[in-house]
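Next comes a concrete protein, fold included:
___
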Amino acid sequence: MNNETNAINWFEIPVIEMPRAKHFYQVVFSMHMEETNMMNIQMAFFPMTMSNGKVSGALAQSPYHIPGMTGPVIYLNANPDLSATLEKVVMEGCNILMPKTRINEETGYMAFFEDTEGNRIGIHSQQ
C-alpha cells in the first residue's frame, strides 16, 4: 500500500435477508444492484466499472457475514447532499444514528444510519 493506491480495494456489507437489504439500498441510493452467487456467498453489487481503480463493494450473505453495529465503519457516497439519502432511510423504516453533521468546510458532511440488517453505515457528502 502506498499514497498512489486506494487503501481499500473492496467492501462487503453483511446481510441476513438479501431481498430486503437489496431493496433498501436500491431505494435509498437510487441505483440498481446486480446479484450473483460467488463461492457460496450471495452478493448484490454496488454500481462499478471494472478496472477503473475506484473502490466498490457488495451486500454479502453467508455464514461468514454477520451484521452488526460495532467494528469498522464504511462511508458510502451520498453526494451532492446526504439529506436526501437520510430522508429515504427514514421512509424505509430505518433509524438515523447520527444526523447530518458538518465535518469542516473542505471535507463536507457525514451521518450514520442503521440499515435493515442491523449494520451501522456512514454516509458522506460535500453539501
